[in-house]
């Protein structure tokens, strides 16, 4: 099941000043806040993923507004949007497209019919309800920004993002995502249950007569400009080294790692984890109005960048250890300055 809106042609990203970056990001957050009550960290981490030009995986039980967040983000950005509802009978061709036979001038020939992946912002709803074969159809698109059908490659429009939602793996009728596909998500963002105050506000908005509307806060060119500026943010060598130490702290064979890592971790995060930390920290600094990266920026983005890249061993799974608790221990026990 898919739904799709036209994909505008995004012009080349324009040059932005840091002040313009923060102002534009605040506008996006404000527009999203018209629909999404509270959840400031959730919205902020999703925006960081988009500005990074990458993909995010949102996990939470049904009914917490994951799909609504992505829909609202699409409304706030002047980009093409498509939604793919993942089900057990969804096939790879339903995502990337297929060749169909058409008749022109009395002749029959094949023509490629694009799938919903050909858009700027793609919502992969309940991605873990599809079979691994269908899940893998996203791999090339997410990594290479192109798809291959019948040995022919097709390039996707820029900017291109996949925002996927999934239910926790203990829910019935779900399939665990392969590690290779998980690693391609820039952030894995946990969607928390709303507070009592937020629930009251949600009831007011969803059971009343008035329906809030979302305005356009940024265009495709704006998003590309924000991406370019984010990569220009300088990061000091000692802050970069700290991010690397956090990554190495996820590997149990590394010296001086926390005991929880040695006891419960089977495999640590890949180098993509360090890339996500560094780029995410740059964007976090810009959102905070700074054009340099601090230790606090690295610590703020480390949990969503690493939680899905750590694989627990049998003991960790049996003890019910969460990867979040592992990341928290690594942050707490990794010094900002290298050990002598």
Brief summary of the model shown:
43% of the residues lie in helices and 18% in strands. The protein is an alpha/beta fold and 340 residues long.
Structure description:
With 340 residues, the chain is α/β, with parallel strands linked by helices. The chain folds into two domains: 2-221, Rossmann fold; 233-333, Helicase, Ruva Protein, domain 3. It has helices spanning 18-33, 40-51, 66-76, 93-96, 132-135, 137-144, 179-182, 196-206, 220-232, 237-248, 259-264, 271-287, 295-306, 314-318, 323-333; strands at 2-4, 56-59, 77-78, 81-85, 97-104, 107-114, 121-125, 146-149, 152-155, 161-166, 187-190, 218-219, 265-267, 311-312. It has a six-stranded mixed beta sheet. A hairpin with a 2-residue loop joins strand 5 (97-104) and strand 6 (107-114). The N and C termini lie far apart (57 Å). Residues 5-11 have low confidence and may be disordered.
